[in-house]
Amino acid sequence: ALDAPVHVTADPDLPPQGYRLRTGPEGVTVDHRDALGLRYALRTLDQLRAGHDYTATGYDISDHPDFPVRGFLLDISRDRVPTRRTLARWIEILALARFTQLELYGEHTYAFREHRDVWQDASPLTAGDLRWLDARCAAVGIELVANQNTFGHMERFLRHPRHAQRAENPEGFERGGVHRPPSTLEPTDDNAAFATALVAEAAREVRSRRLNIGADEPFELGRGRSAERVAEQGVGEVYFSFVTRLMAPWLEAGYTVEFWADVFAEHPELMDRVPPGAVPVVWQYDGPRLLSEVIDGDTPEARTWQRLGADLDNLREGFRSRGKLLSEAGVPFWVAPGASNWNSLLGRIDNAVDNMLDAAETGRENAAQGFLLTSWGDHGHWDAPSVAYGPVVFGGAVSWSLEANRDLDIAAALDDHVLLDEARLTGGVLMRLGRVHRDLGVPLLNGSPIARALFPDPAVPLPALPAPEALDRVAATLAACRDDLSAADPAAADGDVVRRELHHAVALAQFALDVLRARAAVTADAGSVPDADAIDPATARRLLRRIEPLLAEQRACWLLRSRPGGLDDSIRELDRLRHQLTAAAHA
After folding, report:
1. Which of 138, 144, 246, 363 is most buried by its number of CB atoms within 10 A?
2. CATH architecture, range 6-63
């Protein structure tokens, strides 16, 4: 019966977060290891009760997670800072998917007391926002972890005159043949104290005794003011000496400190120097299938990334090479796959799934304690938040139990539990949109042809144009998805927002296809390298007329989910394409 008594018993012999749930004529019994185990057992009971056959069926369920820490990282520093309503929606979805941790990746989007000039136009999170969010997370069994980058990716600080001299290269640097503004702190004691103070401001507002100091991608290290030290000591020594200084005050205070392992894992000589409480997090954002397709073929795309400094041998191995290295050295580590939402507009769901499976398999094989799914916002975070819903559901499922969920029907899970779409259409739309990048027939790392068409980057050019028949197939898919969205009926609180933002994503993707068609029309052979400026003037003028209505809707959709600060910066990401079209229109 639905009102049968529930008998609850703590059982210390169960695995952490584990439970056993039994139902029958005598009522319901729940054995649980800890508070999270009890929470998950009762949520399972709620789901069983919702079934029409609950009273006629007896259940005996034993369950526990593969990874004790199952985290989600949301980038709030590539212009898009979520509203409280959006954060509350994320918490709801994360709790449903049994995540235990949330991190909001920070660079300049926290209201630091002494750095108003850095964040004043960003609509940053405040101390009050963090306290509110921390309480909301704690109420559903999620730990809010402070996350603040401290070494690379410091552009937003270093662009200001009073911080410029903190840079490794105050004048900027070259990468991929493109001049970049300064992004890396010089590894000095003063800069370590500066970065530590930034971390402290956010960390003091949350109750967690864990934090993430980032420290990834210090591209300029050894190429500026630290060049002499790096020449004498080696880049690994200089890097880890600075990171150790960043971690020291937190480790001494009893915190667990996460840091990205991209530089660290390239230096085996550092493996025996990881202090207790420090956790290197191994990130990898493309799945083995795509990596094999791009790298094994020695494609122009692979050569582009090689010029940017990517270690293709390590990339080709996915999580395994670095996971094995750390495991054999006895260094506890976490795995961090990606949601593949960024640089895509519509997502890359097949790559996200492959990437997460690789992470979960490698993590289990090497006793990794944490699985941190990341959702980044490169090029102004133009993708709608709902594009990441499917990867989040799948990431929560496979980090809880890989073998039970590797074949999860993501579309059905979205429609039934996240979007509440009785028509069962929205989940399928998200999956089909997320496969469009493959249908274009131009395999790319860390992005899709649609995004590269909208946000051309001379350092990472589109290596070839899709064939006309591929463009036709994708256009048909987009049209069918648009029709299905019109018939969809998502009853979730943000259902109407999801429909609107996906309609807009489809319109942007259709525009990107037309840009690719325009370039193909004046390129001799389909599949050849596109000329960014080679567009017929009349076609360029027609494309230009379509931009302003698209931007107006982009602004409207943004403000349904996100704060206004950063919106203008994000919109400017389209300027390079606009300039190319303007030049072509007047040729």
Report:
1. 363
2. 2-Layer Sandwich (3.30)
